[in-house]
Amino acid sequence: xxxxxxxxxxxxxxxxxxxxxxxxxxxxxxxxxxxxxxxxxxxxxxxxxxxxxxxxxxxxxxxxxxxxxxxxxxxxxxxxxxxxxxxxxxxxxxxxxxxxxxxxxxxxxxxxxxxxxxxxxxxxxxxxxxx
Length: 131
Known about the structure:
The protein is mainly alpha-helical. It has helices spanning 2-46, 54-74, 80-98, 105-123, 127-130. It has one domain (22-130): Up-down Bundle (Four Helix Bundle (Hemerythrin (Met), subunit A)). 82% of the residues lie in helices and 0% in strands. The radius of gyration is 19 Å and the shape is elongated.
């Protein structure tokens, strides 16, 4: 009986540990996605005229690299269709910056940041999410 209880406690502790690690990784990745998107948005808004600058392209490449790295892990817990939308918005963002077109940039930035905010909330440990 004691042996069975110990095994159950070990399995429960292991499951909690995995859940906490997952939440920390996802939250950190989404925070970084939000921050990189926001930094790029601020840099572009500060750019006068030409937005296709080496600095903006470097920030864009950092955002793309982060997304390419994080997407595989995030897709383990988030709906794949929603992840596709973010990938599409990043592609649109890149095309607009490379073509020096500010037209819909704000919309692309806001979609990415909304995604990060929404999933940070849904993935966090709160009573509301547990119930």
